């Protein structure tokens, strides 16, 4: 019936044979869309065992059970195990075809939803990457060319530069976009587990291997496997990876059965692999196999013009996630950010912006919210007290991250303490008096933006100080 309706059908006469065919088809990258099974199988086996085995390996596969022994209990159990439909015998041709067609439609919808969720989650392709500097524009052009090919690629860049973003762009802007993208950090997984994580294992392959497990080389199908920090991979495992690349096949740990590999490998490193090859820490033949195409990501300190763009992007994205709006970065903040070297690169910048948002109590994020390491290159205020301890003076000087380095004890907390908001209000009042109530020069004198000063004048009810000079 199904064959004449245009479906490709394979049969098996027992649960073990069916599961073996199911696994083989999945490993070959051609998984079955629908499984039909009788509730009663030859011997002591039941169709529910097949249902459980199918759902364990590929949960999205639709399973339809058929039975002449229909009971409420068996139907409920089948549905709990994940069966899509339950057909009591006898049934006609139309009922069967309708059930199979519904199963295929459900699977198609599930796959489309999965791709949509992944697209939304990862903002697919190079569009997620940000940068207007010449070096980033050249990188974007390179990604566009390499994405169309199926060759291996090596991404080089310091920690935090966005190597996985580049790998995702290579995947989602290429012909493999509808296939899985899987990432594994070779430095983050213990040496004893990484081989099993990559190649999978059979039951009893090692202590604790109580059931078979597919590795990333199997799970990726025809997609992209991203190997981050490839320079951390141990020498003996490098030889096994080289074989996968050369022979396009591998075997699980504890098995001699060869499994074909249809995916693409993209590797990344923050290390100098050429030096590692010279030291004998990295295989030269593997290096050449991976390094078919190299993409170099510049560190943030070498594209300082992109820092304000990135900072505003992170602010906007974080604000949307937290349900906030109207936030902005003070110009002095951006100046300090551009002067800083960002050893943690884009990741450090993103963390910095999020930290400022958490600490902020005004819509304009000022230099006072910057971490000392970042603020150390900017310009800020030093606050000094006169000998009598009552009158505050204002002077502009290079920001010093450690108060012990301030000239002449410029900041000194009196024994009786201070109310910080009162001191801030007093400083703003003095700045307005010194500038005859003009906000722009007062803001420059205080080292904050025009909008920040407007906000704080309102906060501390200093409108009268401003008005009396009109």
Q: Helix fraction?
A: 40-55%
- What is the CATH topology assignment of the largest domain? Rossmann fold
The CATH homologous superfamily name of the largest domain equals P-loop containing nucleotide triphosphate hydrolases
Question: Quick one: overall form?
Answer: elongated
Low-pLDDT windows of residues = 377-410
**In what order do the strands lie side by side in the largest sheet?**
5-8-11-4-12
How many DSSP helices? 19
Do you know the CATH architecture of the largest domain? 3-Layer(aba) Sandwich
Give a short synopsis of this structure:
It contains 19 helices and 16 strands. With 470 residues, the protein is α/β, with parallel strands linked by helices.
Output the keywords.
16 strands; 470 residues; three-stranded parallel beta sheet; single chain; alpha/beta; Rossmann fold; 4 domains; Helicase, Ruva Protein, domain 3
Structural account:
The chain folds into four domains: 15-120, Response regulator (Rossmann fold), CATH 3.40.50; 123-298, P-loop containing nucleotide triphosphate hydrolases (Rossmann fold, 3-Layer(aba) Sandwich); 302-375, Orthogonal Bundle (Helicase, Ruva Protein, domain 3); 379-467, Arc Repressor Mutant, subunit A (Orthogonal Bundle), CATH 1.10.10.60. It contains 19 helices and 16 strands. The model is unreliable at 377-410 (pLDDT under 50). With 470 residues, the protein is an alpha/beta fold. The strands form six sheets. A five-stranded parallel beta sheet has the order 5-8-11-4-12. It has a three-stranded parallel beta sheet with strand order 1-2-3.
């Amino acid at each position: 019936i199904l064959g004449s309706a245009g479906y490709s059908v394979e049969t098996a006469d027992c649960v073990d044979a069916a599961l073996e065919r199911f696994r083989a088809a999945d490993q070959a990258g051609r998984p079955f869309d629908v499984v039909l099974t009788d509730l009663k199988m030859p011997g002591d086996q039941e169709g529910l065992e097949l249902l459980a085995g199918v759902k364990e390996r590929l949960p999205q596969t639709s399973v339809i059970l058929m039975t002449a022994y229909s009971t409420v209990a068996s139907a409920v159990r089948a549905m709990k195990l994940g069966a899509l439909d339950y057909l009591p015998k006898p049934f006609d041709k139309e009922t069967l075809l309708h059930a199979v067609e519904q199963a295929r439609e459900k699977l198609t919808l599930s796959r489309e939803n999965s791709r949509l969720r992944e697209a939304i989650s990862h903002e697919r392709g190079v569009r997620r990457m940000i940068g207007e500097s010449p070096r980033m524009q050249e990188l974007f052009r390179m990604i566009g060319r390499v994405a169309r090919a199926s060759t291996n690629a090596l991404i080089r860049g310091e920690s935090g530069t966005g190597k996985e973003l580049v790998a995702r762009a290579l995947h989602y802007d290429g012909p493999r976009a509808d296939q899985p993208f899987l990432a594994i950090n070779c430095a983050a997984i213990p040496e004893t587990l990484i081989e099993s994580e990559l190649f999978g294992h059979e039951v009893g392959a090692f202590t604790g291997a109580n059931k078979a497990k597919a590795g990333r080389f199997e799970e990726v199908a025809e997609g992209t496997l991203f190997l981050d920090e490839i320079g951390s991979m141990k020498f003996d495992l490098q030889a096994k990876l080289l074989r996968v690349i050369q022979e396009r096949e591998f075997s699980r740990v504890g098995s001699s059965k060869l499994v074909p590999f249809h995916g693409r490998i993209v590797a990344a490193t923050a290390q100098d692999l050429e030096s590692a090859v010279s030291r004998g820490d990295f295989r030269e033949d593997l290096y050449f196999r991976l390094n078919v195409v190299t993409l170099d990501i510049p560190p943030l300190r070498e594209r300082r013009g992109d820092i304000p763009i990135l900072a505003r992007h992170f602010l906007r994205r974080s604000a949307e996630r937290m349900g906030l709006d109207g936030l902005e970065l003070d110009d002095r903040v951006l100046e300090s950010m551009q002067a800083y070297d960002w050893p943690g690169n884009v990741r450090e910048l993103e963390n910095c912006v999020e930290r400022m948002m958490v600490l902020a109590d005004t819509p304009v994020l000022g230099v006072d919210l910057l971490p000392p390491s970042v603020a150390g290159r900017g310009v800020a205020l030093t606050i000094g007290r006169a000998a009598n301890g009552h009158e505050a003076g204002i002077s502009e000087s290079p920001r010093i991250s450690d108060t012990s380095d301030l000239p002449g004890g410029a900041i000194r907390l009196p024994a009786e303490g201070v109310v910080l908001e009162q001191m801030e209000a007093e400083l703003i009042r003095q700045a307005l008096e010194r500038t005859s109530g003009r906000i722009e020069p007062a803001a420059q004198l205080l080292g904050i933006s025009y909008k920040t000063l407007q906000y704080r004048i309102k906060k501390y009810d200093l409108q009268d100080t401003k008005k009396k000079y009109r």
